Task: structure prediction
Amino acid sequence: MAFRTSVARTVAAFAPAFALMAVAPTPATAHDVDLSAEVVTTATLPPVPLSAFGVADDRGIKLGGIGSDIFPADRPGEFWTVTDRGPNGQIKVGKEKRRTFPAPDFNPMIVKVRADHGALCVLETIPLTIRSGKPVTGLPNQLPHDEQPYTYDASTPLALNPDGLDTEGVVRAHDGTFWLVDEYGPSLVHVSATGQVLARYVPQGLHLTGTDYPIIEALPAIYAQRKVNRGFEGLGLLPGGDLVIALQSPLLVPDKAAGEASGNSRLLRFSPRTGQVVGEYAYRFDPVPVVDPGEDDPSELKISSIVGVGPHTVIVEERTDRAGRLYVADLRGATDLHGGAYDSPATSPSLEQLTDPATAGVQVAPKRLLIDFNKVDGVPNKIEGVAVLNARTIALINDNDFGMTDGAEAFDADGRLIDSGIPTTLITLRLSRPAVR
Result:
């Protein structure tokens, strides 16, 4: 399926310029830098019914959720984006929070967009498919690893789907194929230029069966202990072709309490050439009140985007739903944990339990603050996609969750969505000086 819109001009003429960027040695902790930013362009996605993309009963839901990530396309002003698993929410029934899927036949897709005169125009959609050509869907894979899906009103269980994907990050490789990350496995997914899943790389021992595409257990087994709905969220492409994968939240190791109190997440370096993990690094969040002055719960911190800007250098977004910051991190300064003690759940204390990893001989990725979104007027909440267009220009896109909110009140008496009114918005920031030095 393709949804195309004729567009005459772009709003900007930015091209990726990663080769121009270099990173000076950075300290072990973040610090404020003398850099300011301003929003120079804004483009908003117009209302498009999900029925235009094959959803039988869209319950009044419009296209959204494409802000799960963003990656520059070949032409200036054009971008590849990706949806997540589709419209979903939570409704409390008794003491249980049930995960609802009001459009269970929605299929995750890669969406090519262009920013033009304040509008975000859809140029092309690439639905994700299995070998038979059927859609992957966004439904969970297996219990108890994933949540049980329910209908929009949380009254009726839905069937699981081992092929289902909760896609987040996206990059386009030089050969025209795509790489995505997924929250369910969590997993790394290789997709053809036409959307067919070529392979899905999952943690060792996950034992996901019944898929209509190859499953490769190539990731450390401990990653299966991710928090539900907090698997892989960010994906960056390094200039040499390696991928850097960001875990959204700390693993629940040894238990949920430790994971939710932890400030230590993880980054994986993966070689598409060999199909193997080639590095693993600890990434430490700043204290949550530093990122979001109105928040004191560390479990609200997430990594939502990661961008490769040098052979060993990445830009990382730390955020809550209300605030966010970009940091430049250097993987060369971090201890490589791959295959070591912290890949074993038997290690005590776990990486997640370390309040100062350096005391245990673990150097976290050195980082420095780049941008605080709280100090830039016009940046939407819940930024999940970041793209570096040139040394002084960055594109951001938010995830509007398809206009969904939690609770039974998200739908009216006829089962139609009461839209949150939050649009999908892509903005570009102009920086006062180069992003990395």
